[in-house]
Amino acid sequence: MASSDHGMAGPGDRLTAPIPRRRFAEALLAGGFLATAVAFIYPVFRYLIPPKASDLGSDSVVAGRVGELKPNSGKIFRFGSRPGLLIRTASGEYRAMSATCTHLSCTVQYRDDLHEVWCACHNGMYDLNGRNISGPPPRPLEGFEVQVRGEEIFVRRRRES
Amino acid sequence: MSLLRNVRDWLDERLEWEDLIAPLRKKTVPLHRLSYWYFLGGITLFLFVIQVLTGILLLLYYRPGANEAFESVQYIMTQVKFGWLIRSIHSWSANLMIFTAFAHMFSVLFLKAYRKPRELTWVSGMILLFLVMGFGFSGYLLPWNTLAFFATKVGTEITGQVPVIGKPMMIFLRGGEDVTGATLTRFFGFHVAVLPGLATLLIFFHLLLVQRLGMSVPPRLEAEWSANPAARREMKFFPNFALRELMAWYVALGVLGALAAIFPWNLGVKADPFVSAPAGIKPEWYFLFMFQTLKLIPPKVWFIDGEILGVLGFGLIGLLWLLLPFFESEYPSRPKRWITGLAVFALAYVAGMSVYGHLAK
C-alpha cells in the first residue's frame, strides 16, 4: 500500500490533496459531533438550574396582633417566603428581625430565660437588636421596622441598609 | 436429579456459563488470623441489597412533595401492614451499612490492602463511601420532618460556603434559594435514581477488581509467605469462604431484624419552614465528627471565615484520602509508617469527635 501511494505521488500530481481533504472531513465530523454534544448538554445543564422564584418582595406584612404576645416572648412570622422573628421585650417594646441565622440559615428563636435570640443548630447568640454577640454567626440579623397600627403589628423592611 | 442436570446442561449450552464461573471456582482467600476482616465488604454489599429491596417496597406508597411526603410515611407506618417494619429496616440497614462501609474502609487501611496494584479498588471504594453518605443525606430528608428539614438546610448551606462554585451548587441541590418542596423532589430523584445507578456501576467495577486482583495479604505476612511458600494457607472461595460469608450475612440479618423490631425508627414532627429550629438539633451520627469540628472552629481564623476554612479543610482531606494509595511506598516490604499513624489518628479523631458531638449540648 505504502509503495503504491508513494508511486502515485509523482511530480506534477496534486501532491497534498488527499490528506487535507481527509483532515477536512475529520474536522467536519468532529465539529459536528461536538456541536451535537453541546446541543444536548447545554439544555440539560440549563434545565438543572431551577428558575428564579419570583419573590413577591412584600415590603410589609402583618406579623401579629396586639395582645398576642406577652412581654418577654417571641414568635415566628412569615415575611414573604422567609421567616421573621417578632419579639416583645420584657419592657413591652416590639422588635422584629429576620429569623434566618446568618451562620448556616437555621431558624432562630427568642430565649425568654436569657432575654436573647438563640440559634439551636450551632449555639449562636444575638442580642435584641439582632447583633451577633456569641457563637459562630458572622453577621447580625437583618432588623425590621415595627409599627403598631390599631390592633395590628406591621413589620417592614428598612429602607437603607 | 437428572432433570435438574438436564436443565443445567441445556442452559449451559446456551449461556456457556461454566466459562463465566470458572474463575470463581479457582478463586481462593488467604487464611490468617486477620481473615475475618475480609467479611466487611460483603456485609456492606448485603446491606446494600436490603436497601434496594426495602427501598422498592417503600416506593409503592411513598409520595414526594412537601404536602404529601410526611403523610405518606405516616401512612406507611400506621396503615400499611408491616409498613413500620419495612421502613424501620430501611433506616436501620442504612445506618448499619454506613457503619460497615466505614469499618471496611479502616480495615483496608490498617491491613494496607490499598497498595499497588489495588489503587483503583481503593479509589472506587472511597467514591462508594461518599455515595453512601450521599444516600444517607438525601434519604434523611424524604420523610420531611423538622430534624431533616434543618439538617438539610445546614448541610446545603455548608456546600454554599465553598468559594465560587458553592452558591450555584447549593441552588442546584436545593432547587432554588431555600429548602422547599423543590428540594424534596430533587433529593428524591437523587436518592432513588441517580445514586443507585452510580452505586450499582461502581459496585460492579469494585467487585470486578477484587475478582481480578484477588484478596490482599498484609505486608508482613506477604513477606513471610514469599520467604517460605510452604507457610502460605488459603481456602477456596467457593464454597468454603462463600458459605462463611453467608453465615456473616445471616448474623447481619439477625442483628438488623432485631434492631428494626425492637427500636422502630421514629418519624418525628412534620417540617414547617416557619418554626424555630428545635433545641438539641444534631445531624445523623455519621456527620457528627464534621459537625462538631465546624462547631469548634472560631468564626474567624486570621482573615478567613471559620466555616469556609472547615469546609475547604474537609474537602481537601477527603481528596487526599481518596488518593492515599498513591502516597504509599512502591516496595511491599517497606510500607510507609506515617500512613498507619495517620489512619490511627483519623480513626481516633472520627470516633472521638463523634462521641464528643453526641454528648455536647
Mean pLDDT of chain A: 84
**Which second-level CATH architecture of chain B applies?**
Up-down Bundle
Q: Summarize the main sheet of chain A.
A: 6 strands, antiparallel
Give the name of the CATH superfamily of chain B: Cytochrome Bc1 Complex, Chain C
What is the terminal-to-terminal distance of chain B? 65 Å
Number of strands of chain A: 10
Q: How many structural domains does the protein architecture of chain A include?
A: 2
Beta-strand proportion of chain A: 25-35%
Largest Cβ-defined interface: A-B, 27 and 32 residues
Rg over C-alpha atoms of chain B, rounded to the nearest angstrom? 23 Å
Task: Tell me about this structure.
The complex is a heterodimer of chains A (about 160) and B (about 350). Chain A is built from two helices and ten strands. With about 160 residues, chain A is an alpha+beta fold. Chain A folds into two domains: about 1-50; about 60-155, Rieske Iron-sulfur Protein, CATH 2.102.10.10. Chain A has a six-stranded antiparallel β-sheet, with no helix packed on it. A four-stranded antiparallel β-sheet of chain A has the order 5-6-7-8, with no helix packed on it. In chain A, strand 3 (about 80-90) and strand 4 (about 95-100) form a beta hairpin. Chain B has about 350 residues and is mainly alpha-helical. Chain B has one domain (about 30-360): Cytochrome Bc1 Complex, Chain C, CATH 1.20.810. Helix content of chain B is about 70%, strand content about 5%. Chain B has helices at about 1-15, 15-25, 40-60, 70-80, 85-110, 120-140, 145-160, 165-175, 180-215, 220-225, 235-260, 290-295, 305-320, 335-360; strands at about 30, 235, 300, 305. In chain B, helix 3 runs antiparallel to helix 5 (about 85-110) and helix 4 (about 70-80) packs across helix 5 (about 85-110).
